[in-house]
Amino acid sequence: MSFEYVVLKTVVFQSEFNDYMWKEKKTSNSYLNKLYDNLSGFLFFSHQMGYISKKPKLRLEPVIDNDEKVYLRTDEVIKLFNSKKWDYEESRLDELLTNPHITIIEQQLEGKRRKQFGGVLRVTNWELVKYIFLFQNSIGCRIGDIPHFKVNDMNFDKKTQLITWVQQKTDKKVSVPLNDIGGFIYKKFSSGKSLTQPLFPPISQQKFNKQLKTS
């Protein structure tokens, strides 16, 4: 990548760089903005030294105010769980797709019982966000843990009714009681999969946050 590409095709550069950092590096917008701040300083120096003809203006990405605490009451969690408005049903497919913000996500099943469950997991994007959010509420995990969960990462003790998993940030084991909501979601997204398959279809943190606010 050259100076000329960054300077003359700034919008394209940022679009491609953002996609790479979000998808491959799972970078937050606040960290991405720090990189742009450093790059902006370097480009200013390069312009002053005559290495580039002009200094491009880099666009910063929106950052959610971390001081704002967003949470749901127990009754709101239950209400959200019971709502099936945006859940995938083949009989409602045409109705769902009338909403321009709704897309269908497919994940191939690779377990021995995949045919029993139709061979493919199908959910809407809003349905996926809903169940990931509820699963986070159920077991207390971070959004950064979600992409790393495999089907066999969830160890369930029938005697104690505890589910155990490993936090990505701390690498520590966490054991919490498995409630009905968490159990339903785990069963929904693990059925028909091999033990090494991801529990949830892939979704970036940026898309998750955006669709959580939209839906």
Structural write-up:
The chain is 41% helix and 11% strand. By secondary structure, it is α+β, with helices and mostly antiparallel strands. It has two domains: 3-48, no CATH class; 74-214, Topoisomerase I, Chain A, domain 3 (Alpha-Beta Complex). Helix 6 packs across helix 7. The protein is elongated. The protein starts with a helix and ends with a helix.
Comma- or semicolon-separated keywords:
alpha+beta, 215 residues, Topoisomerase I, Chain A, domain 3, three-stranded antiparallel beta sheet
Structure summary:
The chain is 41% helix and 11% strand. The chain is an alpha+beta fold and 215 residues long. The protein has 2 domains: 3-48, no CATH class; 74-214, Topoisomerase I, Chain A, domain 3 (Alpha-Beta Complex), CATH 3.90.15.
